[in-house]
Amino acid sequence: MAEENKVILHGFWPSPFVKRVELALKIKGIPYDYVEEDLPNKSSLLLEYNPVYKKVPVLVHNGKPIAESIVILEYIDETWKNGPSLLPEDPYKRAEVRFWASFLQQQLLQRAILVVKSDGEAQEKAIEELFEKLKLLEERIMNIFPEGTASINQENMGLLDIVLISCFGYYKVLEEVLGFKVMDPEKTPLVFSWLTTLLEIPVVKEAIPSHEKEVLFIKYVRQNALNPTAV
Amino acid sequence: MAEELSLLGMWASPFSCRVKIALKLKVVQYKYVEEDLFNKSPLLLKYNPIDKKVPVLVHNGNPLLESLVILEYIDETWQGYPIFPKDPYERAVARFWAKFIDDKLLPAIRRACWGEEKGREKAVEEATELLQLLEMELKEKRFFGGETIGLVDIVADTLSLWLTSFEEGSGVELMTREKFPKLSKWSHEFASTSAVKENLPPKDELTVFLKSLFGKPAK
């Protein structure tokens, strides 16, 4: 049947959450159809597949929808056993990956988004908190990667690597739009080198949108947040 | 072995309660350490320097943080009672609702019960809408996990005793029997399950504590 093992990803090209799923599918070598959603004009299919949040990404596998990017990543890892594992075997290491993935998302990405969307005192506070949390990650990297991060490649990268790229792969874009470094090799050298190692991996390089396109998008997000216009 | 597994928790925390329930379901022995959150122990600060919160499960000297992460670890480490469904799609659905409860529903409930008077009506509306989604998800099942409690039921522990305490402490009514017949029934069945019942804190003490923690009740 045509529907057998059919995978469709509903996404939006600048979304870090969608990026995660795209990377996971590519790393695992899973063929999929991609549907670009126009977010101000969401398709009725998207609304049917994700009535709770009405957001992307949504992965549809054999007609069954799954929402929430990290939930999707775990589903991909459990369903397709070929290709690299996105999570380690050992339950404690899996717990570590889950914890830090949640940290990257809730503590780091959310604050980075706030930094983009605010100015003045609110932005200063968000920046301070972001660097505080980045420092925490920096301090724990040797626990997470006792062998270091230099040898991470397409064959052994995992869920945490994917989440980091989705959160900060566009760090140069942020630097250009904001006028200061979010990923600073002097402040957080280990996180910086982890990120840059990942950005050298071919599947990652291919998945990152063009710098110019991203700059325009982030500028638009910032402008919209600071000067909301009635639509 | 009991001496190699400890849980650092707090009696009034629904997050600590989740872990207690899970360990009970798995019939695993552990040492419980009550933390005073206003005077955190050196042990807590050592095992969770990142956000210094409970619950922390320490297994063979290795700390695990975040209740959802801990629940997955417990299910993967100890056989016996299945907390997560077996099928990958069912697991994804369970994880989705667990995150929904923590990321969206609980903050909305907190805002509705304890938020500023000014935004109260809107907050109550939002919390009600979100509770409706969960009511619909329950369908005709006894528990979110089916015939027996599973991940989503455990994570929804806040909606049984704690929500009742919130409502009593704040004066804001959210989960009424008329609006939420399924959830109300679920709440009662859930709290009556033996693994849950013996791990719930006493209601009156909880209400007093939550009221003092969260502030001014609704007028």
Automatic annotation (TrEMBL), chain A:
E.C. no: 2.5.1.18
Segments crossing the lipid bilayer: none
Entry-linked CDD domains: GST_C_Tau (cd03185), GST_N_Tau (cd03058)
MF (Gene Ontology): glutathione transferase activity
Domain of life: Eukaryota
Keyword Cytoplasm (UniProt): yes
InterPro entries for the chain: Glutathione-S-Trfase_C-like, Glutathione_S-Trfase, Glutathione_S-Trfase_N, GST_C_Tau, Omega/Tau-like
GST C-terminal domain residues: 90-217
PANTHER family, per database record: GLUTATHIONE S-TRANSFERASE U9 (PTHR11260:SF711), GLUTATHIONE S-TRANSFERASE, GST, SUPERFAMILY, GST DOMAIN CONTAINING (PTHR11260)
Free-text function comment from the UniProt entry: Is involved in the conjugation of reduced glutathione to a wide number of exogenous and endogenous hydrophobic electrophiles.
The name this protein goes by in its record: Glutathione S-transferase
UniProtKB/TrEMBL annotation, chain B:
Any single Gene Ontology cellular-component annotation: cytoplasm
EC number per UniProt: 2.5.1.18
Enzyme class of the recorded protein, top EC level: transferase
GO MF annotation, one: glutathione transferase activity
Keywords: Transferase
InterPro entries: Glutathione-S-Trfase_C-like, Glutathione_S-Trfase, Glutathione_S-Trfase_N, GST_C, GST_C_Tau, Omega/Tau-like
GO biological process, one term: glutathione metabolic process
Family: Belongs to the GST superfamily.
Name recorded for this polypeptide: glutathione transferase
Species in which this protein is naturally found: Carya illinoinensis
